Amino acid sequence: MKIRAILVDTARELLYRKTLIFYFGIVTLTHLLLLLALQTDVANGVITGVSLFGLEGSANPHGFALGAGGGAPTDIDAATLVRGIQIAMTWTLYPIGVMLGIFATASLIPHMLEKGTIDLLLSKPVSRPVLFGSRYLGALLVAGANLLYFVCGVGVILAFKTGVWNGGFFLAGLLMTVYFGALLAFLVLVGSLLRSTTIGIMSCAAVYFVSLMVAFPHANADWPALLTSKVSRFTTQAVVEILYHALPRTYEIGSMVTSLVLNKPIVSWMPVFWTLLSGAGALALAIVHFRRTDF
Amino acid sequence: MALVAEGLSKTYTTGVGRRPVQALDRLDLRVARGTVFGLLGPNGAGKTTLVKLALGIARATAGRVEVLGRPAGDVPIRARIGYLPENHRYPAHLTGGQVLHYFGQLSGLGEPERSKRVEALLRRVRMDEWRDTAVRRYSKGMMQRLGMAQAILNEPDLLILDEPTDGVDPVGRREIRDLLLEQKARGATIFLNSHLLSEVERLCDRVAILKEGKLVREGHVDDLTRGAANVWEIDVAGGDDARLAAALQQAGGPGIPPPVPGRDGARTLVVTGETEDLNRTIDAVRAAGLSIAAVRARRESLEDVFVKIVRDGEAA
Fold first, then answer.
1. Using the beta-carbon criterion (under 8 Å), do A126 and B75 form an inter-chain contact?
2. Taking CB atoms and an 8 Å cutoff, what residues of chain A touch B102?
3. Does residue B45 contact residue B19 with C-beta atoms inside 8 Å?
4. Does A142 reach chain B within 8 Å, measured CB to CB?
5. Cis link prior to B112 (omega < 30° from 0)?
């Protein structure tokens, strides 16, 4: 009952702050645009023509020809076209969707820690880890549901319009939600340490870009040779490796999402495990700090 | 005991390079069950820190604090505690009714009992008409009334209130006082932090005064306000000063200062000493054929005692 009460209150607060409604509005608008902009001609269960934002594709013996007037025939089939649209959506809205979720939930922990609010919450028979964990879970459920709403909406609209159901796109949505959960853990960690909404958002953006950047030097074994000083080489290498292992695997998750959408085999699921571990570590640190703090 | 503090100390370390602040210094305090206990002290004396330590909101640097027989910070025991913090904030997105339901749920109150209590309390604090209004639209007084309802929602054995009448008008203060007396009649222990000394004097059985984190005085309100010696005032009606002076000379005993003019032409005598001295003076005045209009014990107000201790540094 207590956890449910905190979850419901978290959802109410997110709705009250309107950032989530704004997020929901953007996603719904994207769905509507796609619904209106994507037109397909289906004859006997086969797509004979596709139009997306005025870009037309028509059937020919080789597949689809894109561009005004048909143009030269290419070998793009309907499934490839749908996946192409999904990849474009994923690459564009993957970071936007995740960051909108972060904006929407960034104030939850700093607000909870305000004087007069936290005193009252801590006087109730709810342990600190349960209080903090429920708050995190509430944010994850509400913002994660919005992310899934976006992905599933796009997937369903494309499927109905084209007749091509791509299960990989829905799986990619789940993967995005996992990644969002990890990033949210860093957000609540910073929120707990510094009690600032703005710094929380900035930190998440930093985690996102830094984790993306360190993936490249990590994958390239030769780059340390460019540094002549032993100390610099060791220090830089250590920093890169620590960051790579401590932060979510943004680059690898992005690659996995692409593979899932394109129905390519996933080489390794380990980045998901490491991302989950990274998020769990950040959340555990946040809870430990919250438990030990005097208010 | 409802609350026991033994050698309780709390030092706040505020940051690198800053001096640590000692909020409480080896405090010993015992609050008996079923009493109304007032905690007084100037700003920064450590009153709120003591409450926070008792509730586990902050942790002691040294010593121990026990609440209702359990160590501070014990989670299940909090179901038997009601708390109204100073400058409390309720989630702005909730209405008054939702606030009570939310905190009732956190206290472990299930349905249908919770709804029954919420409705009854909203009526009791005259907030039932504002049940569906968002708390961000409430005035300070309304917030305090809602806060009181929230604090007693779980019918606590120990009620801890930090400035409950802050920002409340005289009528509201009276209502809160009545509400607290109801809680006392129910058997609850009330621990009151307040700057309104007249309220504390009216409500509390015992009070403690903190200064710079140390307990400087503790006892029954009557004991604290009685002062160092017994002092009485006798209003003598009518008669002339010469007869009164002769009567006082006859009474002898301790030196009685000359009478001062009182109301309606009366003279007021101030007698300091034991009960015997009072009776001897009354007998002498009556024997002189003078009429006594009133006899009353002179007491200091709690405010007088508080100011003496806090400002003048009177020893315990």
1. yes
2. 5, 9
3. no
4. no
5. yes
CB pairs under 8 A between A and B: 83
DSSP 3-state of A228: coil
CA dihedral B196, B198, B202, B205 (to 10 degrees): 70
Most B CBs within 10 Å, among A119, A131, A193, A295, to test the B interface: A119
Cβ of residue A15 closer than 8 Å to a chain B Cβ: yes
Comparison of pLDDT for A212 and B253, the residue scoring more? A212
A74 Cβ neighbours under 8 A, 6+ residues apart = A62, A63, A64, A65, A66
Contact list, B161 vs chain A (CB under 8 Å): none
Q: How confident is the model at residue A39, as a pLDDT?
A: 80
A13 at B interface, C-beta within 8 A: yes
Q: What is the pLDDT of residue B232?
A: 86
Least confident of A36-50, A171-185, A264-278, B262-276: A36-50
With a cut of 80, say whether residue A284 has pLDDT above it.
yes
CB < 8 Å to B21, chain A: none
Q: Which residues pair with B21 in a beta bridge?
A: B12
Dihedral angle sign, alpha carbons of residues A105, A146, A90, A278: positive
**A191-211 per-position pLDDT tens digit:** 999 999 999 999 999 999 999
Task: Please give the model's pTM, rounded to 2 decimal places.
Answer: 0.83
The ipTM estimated for the assembled molecules is: 0.81
A232 vs A223: CA distance, rounded Å: 12
Integer Cα distance of B169 and A189 in angstroms: 42
- For A8-21, write each residue's pLDDT tens digit: 999 999 888 887 88
pLDDT at A282: 97
User: Which amino acid type is present at position A168?
Assistant: G
Residue B2 near residue B157 (C-beta atoms within 8 A):
yes
Tokens of B63: 């010593």
**Chain-chain contact of A294 with B58 (C-beta, under 8 angstroms):** yes
pLDDT given for residue B64 in this prediction: 94
B76 contacts A4? CB cut-off 8 A = no
DSSP string, chain B: --EEEEEEEEEE--STTSPPEEEEEEEEEEE-TT-EEEEE--TTSSHHHHHHHHHTSS--SEEEEEETTEETT-TGGGGGEEEE-TT----TTSBHHHHHHHHHHHTTPPTTHHHHHHHHHHHHTT-GGGTTSBGGG--HHHHHHHHHHHHHTT--SEEEEESTTTT--HHHHHHHHHHHHHHHHHT-EEEEE-S-HHHHHHH-SEEEEEETTEEEEEEEHHHHHH-SS-EEEEEEESS-HHHHHHHHHHH-SSPPPPPEE-GGG-EEEEEES-HHHHHHHHHHHHHTTPEEEEEEE----HHHHHHHHHHS----
Which segments of chain B have a pLDDT < 70?
227-229, 239, 252-256, 263, 312-316
pLDDT digits (tens, 9 = 90+) for A101-119: 899 899 999 999 999 999 9
Task: Name the packing angle between helices B113-124 and B96-106 (round to 10°).
Answer: 130
| Per-residue pLDDT tens over the stretch A55-83 | 676 655 555 555 555 455 455 566 777 78
- pLDDT at residue A179 in the model: 94
